What we know:
heterodimer; A: alpha/beta; Aspartate Aminotransferase, domain 1; Aspartate Aminotransferase, domain 2; 2 domains; 7-stranded mixed β-sheet; 4-stranded antiparallel β-sheet; B: alpha/beta; 3 domains; 15 helices
Amino acid sequence: MDFIPHDDKTIAEMLNIIGVAKIEDLFKDVPKDLIINGLKLPEGLSEPDVLKNLQELGKKNKVYSNSFLGAGCYFHYIPTLVDFVISRSEFYTSYTPYQAEASQGYLQAIYEYQSIISRLTQMDVANASMYDGSTALAEAAIMASIITRKNQVIVLEGVHPEYIEVVKTYCWGQKIELKIVPEEKLEEELTQEVAAVLFQSPNFFGDIEDVLVLANKIKENASNCLVIQCMTDPTCLGVLKPPGETEVDIFVAEGQSFGISPSFGGPGLGIFATRKKFLRKIPGRLVGKTKEIDGGREGFLLTLQAREQHIRREKASSNICTNQALCSLSALVYLVSLGKTGLCEIATQNIQKAHYVKNKIKLIPGYEILNTRPTYNEFIVKCPNIDSLIEECKKFNLLPPLPLSKYYHEMKDVALVCVTESNSRESIEKFIKALELANNNKEGKM
Amino acid sequence: MDEKDSLIFDKGINKAQTNFIPSLDVECDALKNIIPSNLIREEVQIPDIPEVEIVRHFVKLSKINYGVDTGIYPLGSCTMKYNPKINEHIARITEFSQIHPLQEENEGALRLIHHISNILGEITGMEGFTLQPAAGAHGELVGLLIMKKFFETKGVLKNKIIVPDSAHGTNPASAKMAGFSIIELQSNENGEVPLDHLEFAMQQGDVAGIMLTNPNTLGVFDRQIKDITEIVHKYGGLCYYDGANLNPMLGICRPKDMGFDIVHLNLHKTFSTPHGGGGPGSGPVGVTKELIPFLPIPCIISTEKGIVCADENSRSIGRIKAFWGNFGIILRAYVYLLSLGAEGLKRVGQVAVLNANYLRIQLQKRYNLPYNRTCQHEFVLSDKDMPNEVTAEDIAKRLLDYGFYAPTIYFPLIVSGALMIEPTETESKNSLDNFIEVMNKIYNEAVNEPEILKKAPHNTPVGRLDAVSAARNPVLKD
């Protein structure tokens, strides 16, 4: 099939008006030896055939009844009105709102998104979005290097390992030196040459940092160094102290938890918020509120564009152009759907249910919870036999937790477990059963 | 915005909303017994809003927003084509939307990425692809980092990139992010790259290569494209193809055959995935065989065991995004590619060019066309002969009054008062004729009643906004 409206007669009519005999004549600037003789691809499919094709392919992906896997991508309940709103095609088929007067609806929504992220994080200003949490963190590191004019960045070990790799790639491009440091060695590494310290809380292993204490420690040792916090599941902000109430200078997060389907890890949402004093260094788009030139009505428009690539070219604060606008709309609708009551409830349930599972695990012989600090909805467990645990989970149709050996070769038999509000009692009981069975299997082998 | 309560935050009520909270079905400790109080916040300042109010609010906002489903969207270099609804439907199938990036049973997803890489390879001629980049500019960064790594590996210092002045604004910014400095090359009077200047620049020895958009932002296909890439290669450089304007070349010719080594595509332009009001997009990068070892990780490869993921690649630039790229967008583009097939894709290229030339011929009767030649997917008008000093912005704003979206204005920078128009292949002749009629009407207004244009728009929810004070005293939140 195609989506071209012309019939042959219309095409002939148009060619006639243009003044050429055939459509090929319009390509006369293309050197003849470059013209190909058709693509070696199959013929197109009708809508029912393409649907069938994709349904068949989809069967090769397994959908589980419940999940204990997180590690940067989370299964939270998504209110139906999120998809209702983002399916309004006036939103999803529009371009970046360059013509403000014809794009007031989206501009206002982005303005409301910036506002709601500011309220949630208590930071002064949020941008209109970045690609995802990992690239937002990398851009934050670059921004800190530009602001401080220093080219050394420290990343604490608890940051998501894929995020660290992304930061590493971006820093290599910018000739920024990157050091990965365990938290207990942070003070020795903090010199006046450090542009920023990047940390994650709750961190990759689930631990909630006392951000107030950590940020103060950084500022005391290196006064000009920027403190950058990242987060992979910001639903915790319904309960946990927001970065704006601490010394955090830049806050970034993966916003997938805010009403966006896992979708094999993308598209997600890069949340980026900072302090007012850094406003003119922030990467990405910003929507502002203003008034008409000849009138009193308020309206919204893209603002501070002098930072951006299409105006400043190589002097821009970042090259980002297309961002994740529709995902920020999902996040906005998600957050207003929950409201303050729902946000607090969701975060509380995540903490309570994870805590409940932790307590159950403590009772099973052979398992050990390795976290020593409070955790949000993830925690790490030393298992007697992780391969067996994974198999048992699958038998119960549960998406198993992450074996940490995927990222840390030395951490054998340690599972990163995620429990959210969407884990029912039934699924939790099955998971506990799977843990017990996996332990028995171990004993059986011995 | 003229109602007092029009922001979403003004719609709150006192009744707590808990419609979306599952019942707590296990016996739990109180929060204060689990988390120390110094880690706990005060209430979030987001009101509780009844569902019906939320729905009405966003429906109202959608009604004051223009999309491709509203009408023609002639933004040059943005390729605002129709977004097929089947794409959206399939993206919501549970087996695609509810899969975790770290789960083991992901064969369908990996196969899809592998297959679309092969299709994009056939379309561009490139031998290897990564689907990791999240957008066009992200793809540019990846392509340039590949160049950087290529020369680093060879032990050659090349830290400059040639970018013609007809390039997209992201090109120089991306080159800077990859650590290159930029040599801007002025286009000649035909809007093409001057070969003598190019050769002179390459002779300096420290130039890594060139970034080129072909057809360029004037909608012009550079007839000397093979000479350009040959010169760059002669001096050891690499050629980068910005695929933002690939649409008219589909099934006609291929970047690899033009001599390019690296290409990025915009799935949200050429391959019909929706722009979403500015994203999410997807910017796959294709490379020649020689550059495959430099592609970012993870790589999806075909082995005897089937399609698998490799977390290593011998000379990889590293990871550039968590997980697998914008899979949901890649999926939509895949549906489009399967739907169109070989013939359909070629038809896209042909009709995109047909529609653009039809508009060009009709509009140049009244408007100034600085580069007067057959165009590809788009063309650029100038406001310089407009009567009564009517500007590109005035024309754009007046178009909004008539219920159309505006072309890209004041870009490319090499045309003064530019109006860059790209209709795409999905506009019917009827739709194009309506656009022409309104453009002619606007021209007549410019002659007879220019004040209407200078004060436009009149029929939109707001008039022209004060951008200067918005930037001077930014209000970015409520």
